[in-house]
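Escalation from tier 1.

The customer reports that the assembly of two entities below gives different structure tokens on two consecutive runs. Tier 1 could not reproduce it. I'm attaching the input and our single run for tier 2 to review.
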Amino acid sequence: MYEFNLAGLLPYTGPLPRAIVLTLWLSTLSILLSVAVGVLGALCRTSTSLILRWIGGAYVEVLRNIPLLVVIYLIFFGLAQVGLRVDGFNSALIALTLNAGAYMTEIFRGGLTAIPRGQYEAARSQGMTGYQLYRYVVFPQVFRIIYAPLGNLMIGIVIGSSLASVIGVEEVTTWMRRAGDETFRYMESFLAVGVIYVVLAQTINIGRIVTGRWLLSRAPIGHRR
Amino acid sequence: MSTDPSSPVLRIEGLVKRYGPHLVIDGVDLDVAAGQVVVFVGPSGTGKSTLLRCVNGLEDIQGGRILFEGQPVLSRSSAIHAVRRRIGMIFQGFNLYPHLTALQNVTLAPVKVLGEPAKDVEERARGLFRKVRLEHRAHAFPSQLSGGEQQRVAIARALAMNPHLLMFDEPTSALDPETVGDVLAVMEDLAREGRTMLVVTHEIGFARHVGDRMIFMDGGKIVEDRPPEEMIASPENPRTRQFLGSILHH
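Tier 1 run:
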């Protein structure tokens, strides 16, 4: 008869810290890169140039309609077949960034379109350059709008990074399968990793909240509030 | 920059503005001398606001040219930023930056665009808040201010750049009647200081008491350009007469 025994996993916890660090590292890099992709994508999608709008739109529609797993396979196996070898970690990083970047684009675009035209006109009428306009007027307002939806997507990235296990990246899910296989304590390893993901996702989320509070509390110009 | 006192601050020659096939400004010529307060009146959709927006390059133009202090205003050139720094614009909808306090709204551009020291700008801003009678509201956010207060902050924001020309695009049209007077009073003070101002408004009382020139526009053209007192007392053009009649008699 089955007997729940978490301690049975103990001999296999050695590689776990490294696996956790790898999951966090992969997630954090994907988040930062996909934010950059999202900002660029959203600027394309709201551009006055038809070509840029089309490129931005095509990117979003293609990438969010292909399962992340398929994108990972395409980059890891597909590219290898045409002679371009990308290792597991980088394949997962690129796939996660491309996938999340499409959602980031839509979040940032939503934020950008929520800024009234009068804000751009006021900033322009004061002689601001394009950079100054976005840096001091538009993005600070966009940031406040997208702050919450960004949290959902960040958690999605942490969870999505588990798919890196299918191409042998030594992250948390890979550890789970190995520990399960070797101890036959599958239930225990699944549950343990479930808890680990909750903690990791919330760590990232708290990181977002702390960073956000810090950004919002900073005086935007050189004097106190 | 032109320093010759006899040359106009603003010169508009044969201005044409189209939105697609729709002709909004149909050949406008206009010279504005330093210190003049020019009030634009006319039915809506006749190009008054568009004219102001062409002057600082918020709109591109399809014909003619605009010279501000002797420099051509080209909406797509990189020189446009330097022109805009010298022209303050006040919008119907205020367009304050909602994420900044009133004081930060006023100091942002002088610090970031003109590169002036924040301390100096803040000091100047405090003086401007006194001028617009809002010194007690400097740390409020726009959402905490009434419409009239927001518009006075917007005026302070424009003044903080030390502009050579102020443009008011229907500054009181979005305000509750009881706050219109506060904004007009501030504008009157500015006119008395000898500032060069272009004002699009339906406030005929303001035009009469404060304006040096009153320009009636209709169909994208300047129909009549005279001292306000005269135009109101005896409009020459039948369209002017009809328009003034309709807004004075209710």
